[in-house]
Structure formats: structure tokens, C-alpha cells
Amino acid sequence: MHATEIDEPLYDAQNESSVDKAVFIIFAHGPIILSKIRKVAESLSATMFTLPPDVRTRKEQLHECNARLDDVVSVLQNTNTTLQAELRVIADNMQHWKSVVRREKSIYYALNMFNYAADRRTLISEAWMPRNDVAKVQSILENAGISGAVPTMHELHTGKEPPTFHRTNKLTEEFQTIIDSYGVAKYREVYVSRKEMWLILEILPLRVLSHFLLCLLLCSGISVNTSLSYCLTVGHGFILFLVALLLCLNERRLAHVKNDV
User: Fold this and answer.
1) Segment 99-121 mean pLDDT
2) End-to-end Cα separation, the chain, in angstroms
3) Roughly what angle, to the nearest 10 degrees, separates helices 172-180 and 194-201?
4) What does the domain layout of the chain look like in residue ranges?
């Protein structure tokens, strides 16, 4: 008996996993001994192969086995090459596909909010919009229409109370969110409580004044060393500047974060 361990693990198709195996060859005489060897090998889950007694036949089988191995290796190499080429093409188009899918998803999400009129085979939707944006929305609908199907818009009169709308930009949106946390005013209602009035006044002038007063407190609290008070004042302002600069530079990346904190 001669045995040699196989360096690379072999893939087992039945268990769908890689296993470590060894190859062995046994020379024996007599059918009784061969039968016992087969039973022991079968109990150990060994794969058995019977070699022909003729030397020429064994050489032919060895040559055929090597040829089949070369074919398998060639097929694997060609498959990997083709797979890598296809994956490169997919990687180049991945961003474009994501953009198309995201656009299509947003379009169908908006269309799902429409009501289908079976008699006219059209989609009907009702929505609120600012009166100043009516012409802009109508222009967008005309540009979005296809030949023979131009979207139309009609103004409806209703007794329902319109929702509150505050026109904001990137700077005023965050402050409006703070004010809305205390309560949203009704349509065409000007209601400012004491807390909201304090917030509105604090947004522009008092926000700057509070930092200035804080610097004065730092300077007056450390009267022993004037240079140290100046360093604290400048350091405090420099830290605030760095934090603000960091937020501005990462504006686009932080815009996708849902958590306000």
C-alpha cells in the first residue's frame, strides 16, 4: 500500500463543500483479501477505481485522463476570462443602471398615487401647489408630455383647508424645522408664540451675540493671564470654524443621513 496526501482540497458535489483527501493504491493477491479491502474502503467513504492488468491499457487510460484534465483546465480558464470581461462591463454600467432604476422607481411611485379613469383611459391626480408655481408646473407638464398625450392641469375649487407651506432654502430649512417642532401654523395664519419668537430672534443676531458674550465671559473670568484669555477666545472661534467647515465640505454626503443628530 502507498498513500499520498492531496495538497489542494477537492470539491465534493454531494455535500457542496471542499474536503481534504488523500490518494492511495493497494496491491493484493486473492479475491478474499480484495473483497475485505473493498469493504474497509467503502466503510471509510473512499472512492475506488479498478486498474486494468495490462500495462498498455493503463498508459492509455493515463493519457486519456491527462487529456481530460487539460480540457477541464482550459474550459475553466476561458470561463474565468469571460466572466471577468462581463463583470468589467457590468461594473462600468452599474452607476448608469442604478440611476435609471432609481428614476424609474420614482416615476412609478408617483404614478401609483394617481387614480385611473377607465372611461377615458387616463390618470387623474389631485394635489396642492403654491399659486406662484402654477405656470412653472404647467411648463414642466408640457415638456414632459409625449406626442399625442400632453398632460393637462385644471384648477379645482374645494372647501378643504389647504396645508401650510413655507418656502425655504438650504439655509432657512433647518431653522424652519426647529420652529415647526413647536407647532405648525394653519393656512394663512401668523401665530408666533414666545418660544418661536425667541427662536426667530435668536437665529440671526442673537446667535452671533451669544458667542461674543461667551468670549467676554472667558476673558473676564481669566484676568490673571491676558494672553491665555486671548488664546481661549481664538481657540473657541477656531474650533467652531473647523466644525462649520467640516459640515460644509461634507454637505452632500451628510444630506443622505436620515438621523438629524
Assistant:
1) 88
2) 72
3) 160
4) 1-50, 53-112, 169-261
